[in-house]
Write a structure and sequence with these properties.
Chain A: This is RNA polymerase sigma-70 region 2 domain-containing protein. The structure holds two protein chains of two kinds. By secondary structure, chain A is mainly α. Helices cover about 55% and strands about 0% of the residues of chain A. Classes of the chains: A mainly alpha, B alpha+beta.
Chain lengths: ~240, ~170
């Protein structure tokens, strides 16, 4: 098996260790509300659940970061059901992240479990609960890369379709609404680089330019402008069509 | 690398509502085309239940489905699965076959697995078994659902396996 060229060309060694993940993924984003950065200040906030700003769209990853932070804090404080909520909230994101790393469904199931096991064992080092989603995705990606390197050594096999980065095929589009099918067709006409960037951005806790740079091999400085260009192209294509 | 990398000017230009709608639309399409297995959160929670064990974590190495042939003219084709796990000191292979009554049968082989005690942790109950002198074990009548294997060393098992070995949870 070979490593897809589009993901994390710097390799796992260059990725930050989860234990060092003390930066705050949401700090520059619109969602987080706690500016103090003091771990002790989280207690009062999460016992009643962190309020989610009303202007956030549901389904946006920014919501997820905030809700996961509240669940993680509850878990740390021994509130019943905290870990259950955290797992149910973040598992879909980790599943798609694992699939984008080129893992098979069975490998993705394993990787998502390992990421949470790592969190339970080593998550005490996370100083800011708002970093928990990023910690989990970084841990999963690093591990996926280690695993791929090991299995490439072991099998030395030709790459198969399963090794390619995931890009769901619209052949299964019977499950899509007309509106989704139109959007997906337009996404499919963008350049490969734009498609990858948009997929990674769509699932990344925003804005997380360092992680996106590792995932796409693009310099950090070019992600913002490229993101804008890719979204602009997509919007231009959709103009005049009934998409929302 | 520590701290937040420098984010260049312009990179953090805010996305507007329409951008966020499009990205949420892309997420929804991925959810529709390649959905997370519905049982995955339960598998994760099952696996987390074993983290207090002082144990070696095995990883999934391979999982393959194969057509096991028909059991009769009016029986559907059955799928069998072979799953391989590996930890630092142990390799475990399991063939999973579906019984006619809806339960599953696991034919397993562990190396070096002679005389290990086998435990299959499921959501509802735990099934016990034992490896023979060749490291083979059978667990039959196992209910479907998320489950994980725990292989415990015994007085007679290979001293190389000092700690229990826990596999990730799989969907049986």
């Amino acid at each position: 098996m070979t490593v897809p060229p589009t993901l994390d060309p710097a390799g796992p060694a260059a990725a930050p260790g989860p234990a060092g993940e003390t930066d705050r993924p949401g700090a520059a984003g619109p969602a987080p509300t706690d500016a103090s950065g003091q771990p002790g200040s989280d207690h009062a906030r999460s016992a009643t659940g962190t309020p989610v700003p009303a202007q956030r769209r549901s389904g946006d990853v920014g919501d997820l970061v905030v809700q996961a932070a509240a669940a993680f804090t509850d878990y740390r404080n021994g509130v019943a059901g905290g870990i259950d909520r955290l797992v149910r909230l973040v598992s879909p994101l980790l599943w798609h992240t694992a699939r984008q790393c080129g893992l098979s469904p069975a490998e993705a199931e394993d990787s998502v479990q390992q990421a949470f096991v790592a969190l339970v064992r080593r998550g005490a080092t996370i100083s800011d609960p708002l970093a928990v989603v990023r910690w989990l995705t970084v841990t999963l990606r690093r591990q996926a890369w280690r695993d791929r390197a090991v299995s490439a050594q072991r099998t030395a096999a030709e790459p198969t379709d399963l090794d390619l980065p995931r890009e769901p095929s619209a052949e299964a589009s019977a499950v899509l609404t007309d509106e989704q099918r139109r959007l997906w067709e337009h996404v499919g006409q963008l350049s490969e680089r734009c498609r990858q960037l948009l997929a990674v951005i769509a699932f990344a806790p925003r804005p997380d330019y360092a992680a996106i740079a590792r995932s796409t091999g693009m310099p950090i400085g070019s992600i913002g402008p490229t993101r804008g260009r890719c979204l602009d192209k997509l919007r231009a294509r959709l103009q005049g069509e009934e998409w929302r | 690398m520590t701290g937040t990398p420098d984010v260049p000017a312009g990179a953090a230009a805010p996305m507007d509502r329409r951008d966020l709608e499009l990205l949420a639309g892309i997420v929804a399409i991925h959810d529709a085309l390649d959905p997370m297995p519905a049982m995955l959160p339960d598998m994760v929670l099952l696996a987390l239940g074993a983290t207090d064990l002082d144990a070696e974590m095995a990883r999934l190495i391979e999982s393959e489905s194969s057509l096991a042939g028909t059991r009769g003219a009016d029986q559907p084709v059955e799928h069998a699965r072979r799953i391989t796990f590996s930890s630092e000191h142990l390799t475990v292979m399991v063939a999973v076959e579906r019984n006619a009554d809806g339960t599953v049968r696991l034919d397993g082989w562990a190396a070096p697995g002679a005389h290990l005690r086998v435990e299959l942790r499921g959501g509802e109950r735990t099934v016990q078994g034992q490896c023979d002198a060749d490291g083979r074990f059978v667990l039959d009548g196992v209910p479907t659902g998320p489950a994980q294997l725990v292989l415990h060393p015994t007085d007679e098992s290979d001293p190389a396996v000092r700690l229990p070995v826990v596999t990730p949870a799989v969907q049986l």
